[in-house]
Amino acid sequence: MFPIPSLCRMKQRLLQNMNGKSESSLKAFALIQLLLAICFVTYLRIESGAYPGDDAYMTLKAARNIAAGNGFVHNVGERVYCTTTPLYALLVAALSFATTLDPVTVAFVLNGALDPLVVCALFWLILSQTSSYALAGASALLFSVSRFFLSSSHLLMESSLFTFLALASLCAYSLKGRRRILLGIFVGLLILTRPEGGLFALMYLFYLCWKERRLPLRELSGCFLVTLPWLLFAFYYFGTPIPHSIIAKAASYSRSPGETFSLLTAAFTEQFASVHASGILRRGICGVLLLLYFLGVHREWKRGSLLLVYHLFALAFVVAYSVANPFMFEWYFTMPEPSYCIGILVGIRTVLSRLLPVSRQAVALSLGTILWAFALGSQYFAEPFVRHPSGLGTRFNPDFFEREALYERAARDLEAEVSKETKIVAPEFGAFSYHSSAKLLSSLGHINPEVVPFLDLIPKSSRPGINNGVPREMLQGLRPDYLVSLEMFLSDDLRADDWFAAHYQVVREYPSKAFGISQNLLVYKRVGPM
Question: What is the model's pTM?
Fold first, then answer.
């Protein structure tokens, strides 16, 4: 007869061996998920290519002028704070100068290099805060198939840099002593990447004061080490630390009450559910995801986890934008997205902990996320998603690519007729300006203080949802040599105006179906004295 203590020890060793093998398997499985995420984002970036949007061209034009020695300007000789992402512009300019490559190519390579690092930083952060390989692998894989993550990178926006710096600042929290200055440096760089970085910094400051019961002087010193020199430069060079486009947008854009909040809610659903869902089903999916998200946030609040910083930022982001109610573009939605991804998965794990034994929770989370990610990832390759010239099935509207190509074509066709003194007004000026040597005037005043007095005259109600029309008074006051615009930005009143017909004539016409509204991109030339 075997002694009872010996049997107990044998059972304990057996369970330890089984648990050890299970833990090793989960680690390997999580690393496979991370590898899949890296491969997926890398493949999609290479296959999709670079399709910079109008806003991206605004920053890339400044980067090209910096690299060429013309200064931090959009129009040569005009010191206007012309971008909301000075760090991204300076980084692209430095790389463009060092490699002699065009800023578009540099931005494409830069985003393509940053995106795998974002996925790795997310994996490491969650692993360090939760000690769960299953949760870390699931988060990296799910985030990698986000359409907004792909969209902002594909359009050459600065969202990849913003997300990387935000995650890097959280990863730096584990550093002790004087190395905490690095945390502040990351936060400072984040502020220079997007204005929303200031909101992230406030949430981080709140967390540090609450968690550590101290004023984080080392972290603040690192932040000021980065931001103070830029503020001094901006005051000296531009006369203001506030990007002029923020002033212009605040004066010109308008939305129906609650419109931005509805868009933010819809975007939250689209990141993690089928975009074909509609009506009751869509609202049901949104409700379930929100419930899981807030369940996950509540869990992290109780734990006092560092992940709470990103959750606080995401909630503050939604509140701030809902109150301000501005226009929202796809690349905005990437900034709070890691919080959504983490919160939902933590919420799922919390539910699983009440339904399954401990040994099965991690397996269920990992397998479920793989199937979920596969379902979301398949949208990039399956119909009814349209195909752009790279051949990849995407969610992007082909008219968008046509629009930017038309602006480039129009700019090149006019290049022999213009000089740097030629004034051209354009409601959408980014792509045209990038390929033109003329002086561009945004009809919304993005880069031109002289346009701001005319913003109240823009015919906002001429067509629903369009806020950058061109009023006659603006043309009379600015006296541009050319007007380049899609038809939808020209009100019926302007086109029927006798003064406009007498002073501006169409010299080029490019057929277009951009947005499904305009039929042509029109180039008007000023004729006769004003």
Answer: 0.90
